[in-house]
Structures are given as structure tokens and as C-alpha cells.
Write a structure and sequence with these properties.
The chain is mainly α. 77% of the residues lie in helices and 0% in strands. The chain is built from six helices and no strands. The protein has helices spanning 6-28, 33-58, 66-73, 78-117, 122-131, 138-146. Helix 1 (6-28) packs antiparallel against helix 2 and helix 4 (78-117) runs antiparallel to helix 5. The longest helix is centred in the middle third of the chain and has 40 residues, at 78-117.
Length: 151
């Protein structure tokens, strides 16, 4: 019967660790042929536990990205990978925020210049600005009102 959760596999890992500890104790207390059978039994039990663990763990869904596994396999710390990934995401977010703010500013300047050049299009420009669904801060609204545009 295969375990259905990661908790069951975690329990199996604990059992393997316990088996290894028992082998360590039996090896430390080895007293010749009279303890040999116990050591053989413990090693056989460890092999069976590892086989069950391997089979059941392979049935679990993969939740760890392969990049992290490769990172750890090469002897590197996964916490460093996480920190580098977070830094990369922050840089990307900053870039996209700047780009969004630049486009918003361009939209507002374009709308202002269009109203100056074609005053009869003010209502149409206002509709476009309204349709863009971009919330303006209080300060931006005051500037837009002072310039004769609104959103």
C-alpha cells in the first residue's frame, strides 16, 4: 500500500534513519558470531525500508524545480539560489514598474498635448483616459485638473 502524502514518505525516511542508527549501535556492540545474525537482519530491514521509500517517493508529484535540484547536486546552497531568484524578480519588477510609470506619463503628456492641439477632442481624450482604468494619485489628479484634462 503506497502512501498518498509527503507525510507518509517523511515517516518512512525517519524509519530509514532509525534503521541506520540501529545498525550503528549493533556495529559498535559487535561481539562476534553471536551478534552477526542481528546485524544481517538489521541490514536486510534497511534494504527493504530503502526499497519501499524509493518506490513510494517516486510516486509523489514533483514539487521542486529541476534547477534547484541541479543547484544542490553541484554542491551549492539552495538558500543562495532562492536569494538570487528573489533579487532577479525584484529587478524585473522594478524595471516593469518604471516602464509602466513611463508609459503612464507618456499617455498623460500625449493627452494634454492633443487637447492643446485639438480642443474640440477634449471629450474624446477624456473618454480614452477614463477607459484606460489607471488610478491616479491625488497629486496626479490635481496636476491633470490644472492642465485642463481629467480622468
Amino acid at each position: 500500500m503506497a502512501p498518498k502524502s509527503i507525510d507518509a514518505v517523511d515517516d518512512q525516511i525517519k524509519d530509514v534513519i532509525q534503521d541506520l542508527f540501529q545498525i550503528q549501535v549493533a556495529t559498535h556492540n559487535y561481539a562476534g558470531p553471536q551478534t552477526q545474525q542481528e546485524l544481517v537482519r538489521l541490514i536486510t530491514q534497511l534494504a527493504e525500508s530503502l526499497a519501499v521509500l524509493s518506490k513510494d517517493a517516486s510516486a509523489l508529484p514533483d514539487q521542486i524545480p529541476p534547477e534547484i535540484i541541479d543547484y544542490v547536486d553541484s554542491g551549492r546552497n539552495p538558500d543562495i539560489y532562492t536569494r538570487e531568484f528573489i533579487e532577479l524578480v525584484q529587478k524585473s519588477n522594478q524595471y516593469l514598474k518604471g516602464r509602466s510609470e513611463a508609459l503612464t506619463g507618456f499617455r498623460d503628456v500625449l493627452a494634454e498635448e492633443m487637447v492643446k492641439a485639438w480642443p474640440e477632442m477634449k471629450t474624446d481624450v477624456d473618454k480614452v483616459l477614463e477607459g484606460s482604468n489607471i488610478e491616479h494619485t491625488r497629486e496626479e489628479k490635481l496636476v491633470l485638473q490644472a492642465n485642463g484634462t481629467s480622468s
